[in-house]
Amino acid sequence: MEGLGRAAWRSAWRRQFFLQGCWNYEGMQNVGFAYSILPALREFYRDRPEDLTKALKRHLEYFNTQPSMAGVILGAALRLEERTAAGEADPREIGTFKVGLMGSLGAIGDAYFWGALRPMASVAGAILALVHPFLGIAALLLLYNVSHLSIRRKGFAAGIAGEESAVQFLKGAGFAGKTADRKIVAAILGGAYAGAAASKAAFLFGNGTAPAFLFVAALTVHLLTVLFRKAVSPSEILLFLLMIGALLLWQ
Amino acid sequence: MGFQFLLAVVIGAIAYLDRTAAFQVMLHRPLVVATAMGAVFGNVYAGAQVGAIMELLYLARLPVGASIPPDDTGAAMFGGAAAAVAASSVGLSAGSFAAVLLLSVPCAELGKAADRLVRRVNGRIAALTAESVERGDFRSVEHGLLAGVTLFALSGAVLSLAFTGAGVAVGKLLLPRFGPASRNLFAALLPVLPLLGAASVFSCTRTDRTAPAFYLTMGMVFAATFFYRWVG
């Protein structure tokens, strides 16, 4: 960006990692967003404290999106603020742009990061931890963060290049395909994990009934999945098991 | 023991920061945290075993919007410490292992309640920040964020101390009180726990395409590993 010094640009990039530092129910990530954009605003509105106040108030309004995707909006908001400070854009555009994008970015990011990438990295880590703990941890951190940090960096750069570039980034990044691919890998790894666990139980509790064990294990997984879909928490199921354990002890 | 708790508190504060307030680079995941607690309390492998199962147990609950999932970081702090201490007191048998995993649930729910409280206090900090900006105090945004981050870190440090303390107490005092026969009763529940983890993964990733992949892989791996065990 021509108008923005390299230090302020870097500062905004670093500060996005604290987007949820003051997460609250009313404004959600509002303080974090204002904190991230503050160094740039100080440069844009140098010697114009009233305009700086107005700009900061704009960014202290409600804001919530998937934190790893926020770089796109932050970058584009920086560009819009630069144009607003130069008198080339209407300040209302910034709010409209942020509100318009945060919902869709949140939905895309939640599906990709929480629904596909994290389960894939977690199950890969859990399986490899059986070989060696540090191998499992390395797999978990690498599988998640290579994609996570790359999306943050590319998204921020696309946002800085302008609103149209940000929208193009979202269209061109192929999140739908990436989400589907990672879900398949996670499902395959999850199936392998379930198969290995069921086979261990079958071997311990009876050789002659292996097919029955596989059937019971698959049915258990299916029933638990149905319970999760009906908003039953894993904690509730674990507490139920704990109560069964306590009853067994009591008897 | 004092130094071990101090180390646990520092690691816990960093992990809790990573969970919500800063970075989100997955340092807060149960596999990482439980292994670290295992290392702190003298048995890395025991901590990693607990962490590997806990990693998957709570995946079904996503941190979407204002919803707060159970605190699997806190559960892992408890589980890692309890498993490492139990390994050197009564040994980490299948029964002790299942008991540690199940007893971690109250920690997950307590941590969730604490997280909700911190976010409510943050609401007041955010309101004060907005008022200060209105008066022209721009640095209040930085101070507000610092206050929020500090609150998350402090809450994490206190929870870490409480959960690792509880874990050490369970491993050292509670589990040895039960005889091997009682502990073996808990072992009967152990096969369900990895399946619960697998169901959590499947629940997150379930689509028309992934369901056949999951069940086919499950069947194939079951057959292959069962045959390998049977022959070997």
Secondary-structure blueprint:
The complex is a heterodimer of chains A (251) and B (232).
Chain A: H1 6-15, H2 30-44, H3 49-59, H4 70-85, H5 92-129, H6 133-160, H7 163-172, H8 175-205, H9 210-229, H10 234-250
Helix pairs in contact in A: 1-2, 2-3, 2-4, 4-5, 4-6, 5-6, 5-8, 6-7, 8-9
Chain B: H1 2-21, H2 30-40, H3 44-57, H4 72-89, H5 94-103, H6 105-134, H7 139-177, H8 180-187, H9 192-205, H10 210-231
Helix pairs in contact in B: 1-2, 1-7, 2-3, 2-4, 3-4, 3-9, 4-5, 4-6, 4-7, 5-8, 6-7
Structural description of this entry:
- The complex is a heterodimer of chains A (251) and B (232).
- The model of chain A has no long low-confidence stretch (mean pLDDT 93).
- Chain A is built from ten helices and no strands.
- Chain A is an all-alpha fold.
- Chain A has two domains: 177 residues, no CATH class; 42 residues, no CATH class.
- The N and C termini of chain A lie far apart (72 Å).
- Chain B is built from ten helices and no strands.
- Chain B has one domain.
- Chain B is an all-alpha fold and 232 residues long.
- Classes of the chains: A mainly alpha (251), B mainly alpha (232).
- At the A-B interface, helix 2, helix 3, helix 5, helix 6 and helix 8 of A face helix 2, helix 3, helix 5, helix 6 and helix 7 of B.
List keywords for this structure.
heterodimer, A: 251 residues, mainly alpha, 2 domains, 10 helices, 78% helix, B: 232 residues, 0% strand
Summarize the structure in short:
Chain A is mainly α. Chain A has helices spanning 6-15, 30-44, 49-59, 70-85, 92-129, 133-160, 163-172, 175-205, 210-229, 234-250. The longest helix of chain A has 38 residues, at 92-129.
Chain-averaged pLDDT of chain B: 95
Structural class of chain B: mainly alpha
Rounded to the nearest angstrom, the radius of gyration of chain B is: 20 Å
Helix proportion of chain A: over 70%
Strand composition percent of chain A: under 5%
Going by helix content, strand content and strand pairing, the class of chain A is: mainly alpha
Oligomer kind: heterodimer
- The average pLDDT of chain A is 93
